[in-house]
Amino acid sequence: MRPVLIGAALLLALAACGTGQPSSPGSVTLTIAANSISGGKNSESADWIRTWVIPEFERSHQNVKVLFQPSGVEDEQYKTKISLDLKSKTGADVIDVDGIWVGEFAQAGYIKPLAEVGGPTVDGWEGWSQIPQAVQGLGIFDGKKYGLPQGTDGRVLFYNRALFKKAGLPEPWQPASWQEIIDAGTRLKAAGVPVPIQINAGTAMGEATTMQGALPLLTGAGSEIYTTGKWTGASQAMKDVLGFYQQIYSKGLGDPKLQQEAKGRDKSFAQFAEGKIAILAESDYFWRSVIEPKAGVAPMAERDAVVGYAKIPARQPGGGIRGQDFVSMSGGAVRVLNPFSKNPKLAWELLAFMHSAAATKSQLAGQVRISARDDVNAEVLTADPMLKYIAEEVLPITAYRPPLGVYPQVSVALQEATAAVVSGTSPEEAAGAYQTKLERLVGGAANIAG
Question: How confident is the model over 376-409, as pLDDT tens digits?
Fold first, then answer.
């Protein structure tokens, strides 16, 4: 009996491997993989897949069985697992990945453009018209669509209306240039505000320095950290960014010590909530999770009345990327198709279903959160003007980090450059040191745009 049992177990394993092997005559099995698990990491997402996605999809596809492969591990462990699956041409049919992995996976041949895998129906999907072009960028690499964005966020300038009133500044406030931010900070300092401006800097702030500070400023200077196959080095745009940091921290408009503390970002949250910081560059996470009046990390009971928000201006009007007056940066996860799926067209149907308006609303489960879809945002964000502002005003002008494996190391080099300027190094010298590090990271000056 043992050989028969082993054979049966092997057939069951094949049916569950996510490559679409038949589980019974006339039926196929599709598998979804995500770094979420009920009762653990990203539990809500796991529960949604199990209790809504699978039964709803199977209801409309009678001969399809959908399985879920949950994980609840560190992101790098999950990335390694997914990479090994794809490298060996196995794994789930629909896979959750961080948007920052897309380019790396594409270059390795682990994933392919959606239309190449799912067929001609991909380009005609109704959802494309509901996802802003800038938001689609989260799943785009080298101009091709590799994944569907699950959701995203946006960076803005938050400001304290009471402190602005004390300094005689206008409200609502929308600076049109970097100089107007500096001018506001100067007036706030004169009015006795302890920390007029907080733009994250240094390595202690980690990726928050890059995403809340260096990268939005760089896009505001008309450049991106990686474009057309090259990395931005010690260019004039980079020097302009570091020069802006110098203006803030050499003139006493920001607190340089805060940038060096291990818990500096958390302290900046607390100080803003206490009315000690007037202007803070952050994502909408700050609004919905940090200063949220009831359950925030640093709750502000009068948040809606006291806290204003404005778009991040380009260095000067029209000086941002794509000739924009205002800029932002966003992050988020995407879902991709396994190019080795045995049923790629059905896998695309499942992926598209997971990103339909009905599925997106179901996943929100009544929460007021920004989704990737305009139609859903228009319906669910009416109760929160700030998140509606992000969806309507900020996402159309946003940009994303390059989805390449070396990016995290480049990010650290950027953080080190800002730290140097905050400590008194000139922008030119800090940019030169950054260029030297960048050359080592990306394979030489030939891969860098000056």
Answer: 999 999 989 999 999 999 999 999 999 998 999 9
Asked whether 384 and 395 are in contact (CB, 8 A), the reply is no
- The encoded tokens of residue 229 equal 């196959």
Length of the chain, in residues = 450
> Residue 331 has which token pair?
């992050």
Locus of tokens 């959160």: 369
Quick one: which of 139, 136, 134, 173 has its CA closest to 157? 173
This prediction's pTM = 0.86
CA neighbours closer than 13 Å in the CB half-sphere of residue 329: 25
For 13-48, give the DSSP string: HHHTSSS---SSTT-EEEEEEES--TTSTTHHHHHH
Residues whose CB falls within 8 Å of the CB of residue 9, separated by 6 or more in sequence, listed in order? none
Is residue 299 classed as helix, strand or coil in its secondary structure?
coil
Q: What is the pLDDT of residues 300-351, one digit of tens each?
A: 999 999 999 999 999 999 999 999 999 999 999 999 999 999 999 999 999 9
Compute φ and ψ for 169, nearest 5 degrees: -90, 155
